[in-house]
């Protein structure tokens, strides 16, 4: 069930310029427990206005919309209303759509063939601090980061044995959690792998986010590759 701490429903705004699609998403969400649709917008400009008025927990954001597209609307919402998370829900899964949306601050990215359960999981994920990415999108993100990591590895480096030292004051356990995030594990899976509680995992994540200056799991993945903590597949 997608609910905030305390059991209150997740308050959601739906933004899509196609009336039939928008009404269909609203109707679907209305059938799901723990979700309350508090508004629907026909373009990015209206989405930003509704966030200012209603302070929802999550916006389900289409990308290709008139007046103000989804990327710009996401950037404005995350800048002006950081308490509201954005999950992209769009037809497009190409790099030119995915990466600008993530850079703008979207915490999740789904395509419109996602089912109700998948949308629920994404909303629940971003409210819990996870990234609500469709598996295909997460693979593309990791592939892009792997390519960047390969380029970084081709640069001259000092020779040393063993893994690099933890950067930015991270402890060994925080570094371990960061690597597992970069491998695509969620909090529950990390807790199982390390044989600790999910509350302990969340504490480690909060600490490593503060030390590294990253804001979400997507940025944490980029950070891990950029610091050489994770090697590209086959590297």
Describe the structure.
- This protein has 235 residues and is an alpha/beta fold.
- The protein has helices at residues 19-30, 44-54, 70-80, 95-103, 116-127, 135-153, 172-182, 187-194, 198-212, 217-226, and strands spanning 10-15, 35-41, 58-61, 85-90, 108-111, 132-133.
- The protein has a 6-stranded parallel beta sheet with strand order 2-1-3-4-5-6, sandwiched between helices.
- Helix 5 (116-127) links the parallel strand 5 (108-111) and strand 6 (132-133).
- The longest helix has 19 residues, at 135-153.
- The protein is globular, with a radius of gyration of 18 Å.
- The N and C termini lie far apart (40 Å).
- The model is unreliable at 152-163 (pLDDT under 50).
Question: How are the SSEs placed, and which strands pair?
Answer:
Elements: E1 10-15, H1 19-30, E2 35-41, H2 44-54, E3 58-61, H3 70-80, E4 85-90, H4 95-103, E5 108-111, H5 116-127, E6 132-133, H6 135-153, H7 172-182, H8 187-194, H9 198-212, H10 217-226
Parallel strand pairs: 1-2, 1-3, 3-4, 4-5, 5-6
